[in-house]
Write a structure and sequence with these properties.
With 1300 residues, the protein is mostly beta strands. Among the domains are: 97 residues, Immunoglobulin-like; 97 residues, Immunoglobulin-like; 83 residues, Immunoglobulin-like, CATH 2.60.40; 92 residues, Immunoglobulins (Immunoglobulin-like), CATH 2.60.40.10; 91 residues, Immunoglobulins (Immunoglobulin-like, Sandwich), CATH 2.60.40; 89 residues, Immunoglobulins (Immunoglobulin-like); 107 residues, Immunoglobulins (Immunoglobulin-like), CATH 2.60.40; 90 residues, Sandwich (Immunoglobulin-like). Helix content is 6%, strand content 42%. The protein is built from 10 helices and 98 strands. α7 runs parallel beside α9. One of its GO terms (molecular function) is cell-cell adhesion mediator activity.
Length: 1300
């Protein structure tokens, strides 16, 4: 930007050709009309033409002291002041200040006139505005006679006149009473602009003797009170007569007003009448603007401030009451004193420039504009061809220093005049270079570089540019010089990097500048055109490269030319350092053109891409039904938005509902996207709704709004039910069933089914019929398994369906009557037999023969040792049923057990059930051993004993033992227990026990130790190493060999010990203690001891705790107290502090002494005994109800001790106190005491992962609170394999902390 700011102001020179003038107008250099000295230009002693800073103001002077016309100015050198009164010099020249005051000896009236102030120095003279001074004496009141009291009748109107003294200054009027209180004004009582007081109608309360008009002359500092006015209002003896409104002011029906622009216009409308009229204002040519108009004095005044030409026009005032109305018209004419529309400004000019001073003013009427130089009209000065005035504009061409002056432009019309001073200062200033020396300019390849060389002087200096070691810069075609001296280099490249010098012609002033050309910023991976599914995230790339000498660029993304801003609070947009933009959860409104702009200090580059958001289509709409017929209707629809993915098809859905509360939407048909209407075939007697979905490549749209419902008329059924058959279960009846028709297939009201039946081979050709609303239908008295022809037909109120086809059905079946005979068993091998039987007659089946069932029952092994009985087999292994379907009369039965006894029967069966069983057939299987087996076929029966190839085959040895467990009575012993195998497959001869210690890298056979055992099921190993985990294998033995092994691993249990590491969590009155029990340790009994850390405390001990519990809770503690905690036996100790504020003991007093407490307790006990004796005496015969006493005693047993939670009170002491007459009560106590009190302190606590505990009773407590040694604790539910503890110890969860 050039440092010298210029305004177009005409042209230089006057004797030029038109072409030259045009070139001057187009040339920027020639349009510099004035100069502005830059702030960094250094200059000294620049003179200033005079300027008026304080203008004189017109006013009225009531005394010599009021004569004061201010006139102040500035300039360099300091100006002088002189006054002109009524066109003539007035008084002498003044210095320092030009304010005019009155001389004491002169008369006041001699100062009245029009004044101007002239402020001058060697550069020119400034002229002030014209000020008018009016002189007059201070207003006074003429002597007045006291007015007589004016009498009025109630309801009349009245005017009280003020008539203040005349003056050029309008006084402010105040109507007051004798106590200087304002007369209240309202719609009925108001004042006018001339100060009179108007009453629209009088009331009796208006009577008073002190109505006083006070005229306040503010500039004269005087208040003149007029003579008091007295009025008397007499009540009317008759009814007051109402009257229509009349205007008290203004008079007549029309008035005219002239107002000047900028003044305040006040129109008044003061009516009289009874009742008091209301006033409404209107403007005839346009509505009144509330912003321009104010209603004052209860709408009696309409006021417009700062009047403009737009307020010129016709106004009306309407006063109205119940008796009529009156209207007044106001014609408002707006004129204007002169005012400026364009004012010339003060400027500096260089010699030879052209000066154009524009001075434009408006007014009504149009003002006349004149020019003066230093207060002298141009018409009165020497003519100069370089000066020219045209339409109020003064043009000075080829100005010289002698043209320096103050020029006055004055506009005048009949309403006044205005004047403006303009200072024109023609100066010569030496040239200076304002741009700093040694600046470094940077640009990127391809840009236009601008090397600055700002100069200033008057006239404007001219400069030359040179390239270091290359000569003048303008010799390069890419380089040009701007009008303000800067060097412009287009399309810079690396070759343009150099040093440049700017020199002012005809002087020794110059500066140097350096140009560095950097690599251009590029976008190497611009954003692409993406197609994204709605709801997904989109990433637009914008990778770039910049010159390494430039700092990190700024990246600005825009969507549709609007900036995108990302913030931590908004995760919609995320910008990354590589320039990419991530848009989260894109929606349809995110579609658009995206651009990224990479900006550095030197250049910027941008690239664009787009995002097209695709989504399921919008729902179709505007569904309509047309061509409505009995069995069809045409559905039409309008497509919704495709959402940037074309629609491929439409899905028509319909809902059928005979009952409006039922029915669901079902897909009816799919049609291509170019179809917008479809004929839909319908069922009779139904109500339909339709809706449409659109499908595109993204998915299916939401359904359209449903169409109007459409109901079809009823008709006869179109079809009959299918799958007509019989499912009879009773032997003397037939159950006919069928597949029901859907409700939409009923076609009309009163739908039902008509059932027909007759014997298929009987003598009756006639059909029997009946009806039913739904299947099944039962026909009784049919006989057993008789064939029938059956058919079912659909019927409704309009008729029957088509003729149905007859089907064959049967009446109910019954159990078969005969059992199969000649049952025989042939052994195929030691575990497979072939069973044969003779078939039963078909007449005895009494139904459809489904086949035969072979019932096989295993009676067990043939012999067993008494010392080792096998475990009882499951019923499924002992009893088997083999089903043979159809008419087959033989079956191969396999998978039999060796060395077992079996019983076999065969029975026929039909759908009713089984018939009688055949006679039982008994057979046995041999012991497992070596046999010869034909390998060419699966079994002997199938091979037919013809295969010549024989091999040796060993049958199975005993199965595995049924179970194997162990327990550790000591650290070196382990007792194994097991059960005999379920499948011995022969006679057991003993067991083989093998065990070893697994060692990595060594086979188990090398470490194995084997022990042959008799038929016992228990064995104890001694001398084991407690530190070793052993592997055990146990097998059963028969003559066939060793059985399958069962394997387990285990180690002996170590002696238990109390925990050494515990976790403490303290509450206010309790503390939770937890620890990790040893994995292989037996239960160990210990207790917690705890002590308050204060003087005089004693150790307290909890009950016995099991080491396997892992948790214990101490209760009944004091809040806010430090405790010591120990485990006994053991030496470990801990400290903890309970939560909450510490409870301080009360100061010692007699109320806390032991003797006092004992005395009070004895008195309470004595009182209690007396009350009991009184109660006994009142009882009959001195006796009382045993039942009531039992209840009292039992209730007493359930009272809780202090500090206990959930504990029942021990009844041991009560039993000692029982008398012989109360033995039953004591027995009742003993029996009731066998409750949670016996188990409450022996709950085994385990914790689940969520922190909850699992409580389990582990023993019964004796009356002294010690555990019974004979009881064994239950195994923990979270560690079922843990052996039972040898000693059970109680666990308290109730805060029973032991002896106090």
């Amino acid at each position: 930007m050039p440092l010298v700011q210029c305004q177009p102001a005409g042209r230089r020179g006057s004797n030029k050709t038109q072409l030259h003038l045009l070139l001057l107008f187009l040339s920027v250099l020639q349009t510099h009309g004035y100069i502005i000295i830059p702030p960094d230009y250094k200059y000294y002693n620049l003179k200033q033409a005079p300027k008026i800073t304080v203008q004189p103001v017109s006013h009225t002077a009531f005394s010599l002291d009021d004569v004061n016309l201010a006139c102040e100015g500035s300039g360099d050198p300091a100006p002088s002041f002189r006054w002109v009164k009524d066109g003539k010099e007035f008084r002498r020249e003044l210095f320092e200040s030009g304010t005019l005051t009155a001389e004491v000896k002169e008369e006041l009236r001699s100062y009245q006139g029009s004044y101007r102030c002239y402020v001058a120095n060697e550069l020119g003279t400034a002229v002030s505005d014209l000020a008018h001074l009016i002189t007059e004496p201070i207003p006074t009141l003429a002597k007045e006679k006291r007015q007589k009291t004016r009498s009025f009748e109630e309801g009349e109107s009245a005017v009280l006149y003020c008539n203040p003294p005349k003056s050029s200054v309008t006084p402010k009027i105040h109507w007051m009473d004798i106590q200087l209180r304002h007369i209240p004004l309202n719609e009925r009582v108001t004042t006018s602009l001339d100060g009179n007081l108007y009453f629209a109608n009088l009331i009796v309360n208006d009577s008073r003797e002190d109505y006083t008009c006070n005229a306040h002359y503010i500039s004269a500092s005087v208040i003149l009170p007029k003579e008091r006015i007295s009025i008397s209002v007499t009540p009317s003896n008759s009814v007051v007569k109402n009257r229509r409104p009349q205007l008290q002011k203004p008079a007549g029906s029309h008035s005219s007003y002239l107002v000047l622009r900028g003044q305040t216009l006040t129109l008044e409308c003061i009516p009289e009448g009874l009742p008091t009229p209301e006033v409404q204002w209107e403007r005839m040519d346009s509505p009144l603007s509330p912003a321009r108009v104010r209603m004052l004095k209860y709408k009696r005044w309409l006021q417009i401030e700062s009047v403009s030409e737009a307020d010129d026009g016709e106004y009306t005032c309407t006063a109205q009451n119940s008796q009529g109305s009156v209207k007044h018209h106001y014609s408002v004419t707006v004129e204007a004193a002169p005012y400026w529309t364009r004012r010339p400004e003060d400027h500096l000019y260089a010699p030879g420039e052209t000066v154009r001073l524009d001075c434009q003013a408006e007014g009504i009427p149009t003002p006349n504009i004149t020019w003066s130089i230093n207060g002298v009209p141009i018409a009165g000065t020497d003519s100069d061809s370089r000066r020219h005035v045209s339409s109020g504009t003064l043009i000075l061409t080829d100005v010289q220093y002698s043209d320096t002056a103050v020029y006055q432009c004055e506009a005048t019309n009949k309403h006044g005049n205005i004047l403006v001073n303009t200072r024109v200062h023609v100066v010569e200033l030496p040239p200076q270079i304002l741009t700093a020396d040694g600046l470094v300019y940077k640009a990127t390849e391809g840009q236009t570089a601008l090397l600055q060389c700002h100069t200033f002087g008057s006239p404007q200096p001219k400069v030359d540019w040179e390239i270091f070691n290359s000569g003048p810069a303008l010799a390069n075609a890419k380089m040009s010089q701007t009008s303000d001296g800067n060097l412009q280099i287009s399309d810079v490249s690396e070759d343009d990097s150099n040093m440049y010098t700017c020199s002012v012609r005809h002087s020794n002033r110059s500066i140097s500048a350096e140009l560095q050309v950097l690599n251009r910023t590029k976008i190497v991976d611009p954003p692409q055109d993406l197609r994204v599914l709605r709801g997904d995230d989109a990433v637009l790339q914008c990778k770039y490269t910049v010159d390494h000498k430039l700092k990190q660029p700024t990246i600005q993304w825009k969507k549709d030319k609007h900036k995108i801003t990302s913030s931590a609070n908004d995760d919609k947009y995320s910008e990354y350092t590589d320039g990419s933009l991530k848009i989260t959860d894109v929606q349809m409104e995110d579609s658009g053109i995206y651009s990224c702009e990479i900006s550095t200090k030197l250049d910027s580059v941008s690239a664009t891409g787009s995002i097209t958001v695709q989504d399921k289509p919008g729902s179709p709409h505007s569904l309509g039904l047309s061509e409505k017929k009995d069995r069809s209707v045409t559905l039409s629809w309008m497509p919704g938005a495709e959402n940037n993915s074309p629609v491929s098809e439409y899905v028509i859905e319909r809902k059928e509902e005979q009952n409006p509360e039922k029915g669901r939407w079902e897909e009816y048909r799919r049609v291509p996207q170019d179809i917008r209407h479809l004929e839909i075939h319908l069922q009779p007697y139904n109500t339909y709704h339709f809706r449409v979905r659109a499908v595109n490549g993204i998915g299916m749209s939401e359904p359209s709004p449903p169409s109007d419902s459409y109901s079809t008329p009823a008709a006869k059924p179109d079809m009959n039910p299918e799958n007509v058959t019989t499912v009879s279960t009773d032997s003397n009846s037939m159950v006919i069933t069928w597949q029901e028709l859907e409700q939409r297939q009923f076609n009309g009201p009163g739908f039902k089914y008509k059932i027909y039946w007759r014997q298929a081979s009987g003598s009756s050709p006639h059909w029997k019929e009946s009806s039913a609303s739904n299947p099944p239908f039962i026909v009784n008295g049919t006989g057993t398994f008789i064939p029938f022809e059956i058919k079912v037909q659909a019927v409704n109120e309009l008729g029957v369906g088509p003729e149905p086809d007859a089907e064959i059905g049967y009446s109910g079946e019954d159990l078969p009557l005969e059992a199969p005979s000649e049952v025989a068993v042939t052994e195929l091998n030691k575990t497979t037999v072939l069973v044969r039987w003779s078939p039963v007659s078909m007449e005895s089946v009494r139904g459809h023969l489904l086949g035969y069932k072979i019932h096989l029952r295993k009676k067990g092994p043939r012999t067993h040792s008494r010392r080792s009985l096998p475990m009882q087999e499951p019923a499924a292994d002992r009893n088997r049923v083999i089903v043979v379907h159809g008419n087959k009369v033989e079956m191969v039965v396999s998978d039999l057990q060796f060395y077992s006894n079996y019983t076999l029967t065969v029975a026929p069966f039909n759908s009713k059930g089984e018939g009688p069983h055949s006679k039982a057939y008994h057979f046995s299987t041999p012991e497992g051993g070596k046999v010869i087996f034909y390998s060419a076929c699966e079994n002997l029966y199938e091979c037919g004993f013809r295969s010549p190839e024989l091999v040796l085959f060993w049958h199975p040895a005993p199965g595995p033992v049924s179970f194997l467990t162990f327990e550790s009575p000591s650290e070196t012993e382990m007792t194994l227990r097991w059960g005999a195998p379920n499948k011995p497959n022969g006679v057991l001869t003993g067991y083989l026990l093998q065990y070893y210690e697994p060692v990595p890298g060594i086979s188990s056979e090398q470490l194995m130790e084997s022990i042959n055992l008799p038929l016992d099921t228990e064995f104890t190993l001694k001398g084991l190493n407690p530190q070793i985990q052993y592997h055990f294998m146990l097998r059963a033995l028969t003559a066939a060999g060793d059985g399958e092994p069962i394997e387990i691993e285990g180690a002996t249990l170590l002696d238990g010990e109390p925990p050494s590491a515990i976790n403490i969590e303290a509450g206010q009155t309790s503390v939770n203690v937890s620890w990790v029990p040893g994995e292989r340790q037996r239960n160990f009994a210990f207790s917690f001891r705890y002590l308050k850390k204060r003087e005089g405390g004693e150790w307290e001990e909890s009950e016995k705790v099991n080491s396997s519990q892992a948790f214990y809770q101490l209760q009944g503690l004091t809040p806010g107290v430090q405790y010591h905690l120990k485990i006994h036996p053991g030496n470990n100790s801990w400290e903890f502090k309970t939560a909450g504020p510490e409870l301080h003991e009360l100061p010692s007093s007699f109320a806390t002494q032991g003797w006092f407490i004992g005395l009070i307790s004895a008195m309470v006990l004595l009182l209690l005994v007396l009350l009991i004796l009184c109660y006994i005496k009142k009882s009959k015969g001195g006796k009382y109800s045993v039942k009531e006493n039992e209840e009292d005693q039992v209730n007493g047993a359930h009272t809780k001790k202090d500090g206990e939670f959930g504990e029942y009170k021990s009844l041991e002491s009560d039993n000692e106190k029982c008398s012989t007459n109360q033995q039953s009560v004591c027995e009742s106590k003993s029996s009731s005491n066998d409750s949670l009190a016996d188990y409450g302190d022996s709950v085994d606590i385990q914790f689940n992962e969520d922190g909850s505990f699992i409580g389990q009773y582990s023993g019964r407590r004796d009356p002294n609170g010690h555990a019974t040694h004979g009881s064994s604790g239950a195994t923990s539910p979270i560690n079922p394999n843990m052996p039972p503890p040898s000693i059970s110890f109680p666990t308290s969860v109730t805060g029973f902390l032991g002896p106090n």
